[in-house]
Amino acid sequence: MRVTAVTCVKNEGPFLIEWIAFHRLLSVTDFLFYSNDCSDGTDRLLDALAKAGIVRHLPNPAEGRGYQMEALKDSRRHTVVQEADWVWIADVDEFLNIHVGNHTIPALIEACGNPQAISLNFQFFANDGVEAFEDLPVIEQFNRSHNPDIWCGEFAIEVKSLIRKDFPLQYYGAHRPFFKSKLAPKKRPQWSDGSGRPVPHKFLVAANARRIRKFPAFGARRFATLNHYALRSLDSYLVKNDRGDVNREYRAFDDTYWRERNDVAHEDRSIHRYLPRLRAEIAALKALPEIAALHDAACALHRAKRDELLAQEDYRAMKAQLMAAGTLCPDEEALLASLGLPLPPSPYQKGAT
After folding, report:
1. What CA–CA distance (Å, rounded) separates 279 from 22?
2. Which of 58, 113, 140, 206 has its CA 20 to 30 A from that of 320?
3. CA 68, CA 233: separation in Å to the nearest integer?
4. What Rg value do the Cα atoms of the chain yield, rounded?
5. Contact yes or no for 127/233 (Cβ under 8 A)
6. What does the angle CA 126 – CA 234 – CA 274 come to, to the nearest 5 degrees?
7. From CA 76, how far away is CA 85, in angstroms rounded?
8. Coil, strand, or helix at residue 4?
9. String of b and e for 14-49 (b: at least 16 CB within 10 Å)?
C-alpha cells in the first residue's frame, strides 16, 4: 500500500524530523512537502531529506494568500499523489493516533472496512504551562486536552481526512475531499469516521456550511483520533504567531486562539505507545548525511527568533498576556464571570494544578 502525506510548511524546521519519523511508523510511504518563505532552515532541511530520498520538496506555487489550497491543487499533477493508494492531508502539528491492530494506517483502514475516505476528529492538546522550547518529541511533552467529545461547547469538532485513490474527487480540501454536488446518490463515496461509521449525511454532501469540515466527535474515536498540538511551548507559540500560517500572511494577535486550545481538563498519553520506535526512527533519520546538523541549526534559529521577538515590547506583553490566561475557553470564562464564580488559575501561576 502506498500512502502519500501532503503538507504545507513555513518555519517548521525543529518539528520536521519527528513528524516524518512518526508518519513512517504509521506506514506512510511518500511525503510531498510544499514550503514558502522559510527563514529557519526548513527548506534546507527538506532539500537534504529529498536528496536522501525521504521526501519530495517543492516551493509553494501560490502567488496570493491561498497557500494551502494552491498547493493541494498542484499536488494532483505529481506522480507521488497520482500513484498513491491513499492520500493523507495534514499539518506538521497533527499526529494520527491509531488505537487498533498494529497502530498503522493500513490497520485503521481495515478496521473501518476499507471505505473511500476516513475523516478523523481533532483532539486539541494544551500548552499546559510548558514555557521553554525543548528539542524533544512533541507527542511526549504535551499530554492534556479538552474532553475529547466536547470542545468550547461544540460537539462537532474539525477533522482531517484519508482519501482512497478511487474517491470521486472534485478537489482536495485541507480538511476533507469534495465531490461534485450533482453526483448521483448511488455514486457517492463510502466515507467513515474514526469508528468505521458512515459520516453524517450533511457532512458527506457538504450541505451544512457551518459544519462543512466537522461533525460530532461523540463515538467517533474508537479506532483513531487526530492529536493536534496547535500551541506547543509558549516559546514556539510566539514564533508561530510571528510567522503567520500557510493560509494567511499575518494573523493579528488575539489570545482567543490560545485560550480555545489550552483546556487541560483531560489527560491522554495513549500516543506514547509510539515513543520507543519513534526515538529509533528519529535517530535513523538524523544519521543521514547533513540531517542532524540541519535539524540542530533549525532549533538554534527557532530559539534565536524567540529571543529577537522578546526584545520587542509588544511580544513581551503578548507573552505576559498568555501566561496570565486561564485554561477555559472565552465562553466558559464569560459564563463563570456572569455567575460570580472564580476562574481557574493559569498553569504558569505558582501552585497551579
Report:
1. 9
2. 140
3. 24
4. 20
5. yes
6. 50
7. 13
8. strand
9. bbbbbbbbbbbbbbbbbbbbbbbebebbbbbbbbbb
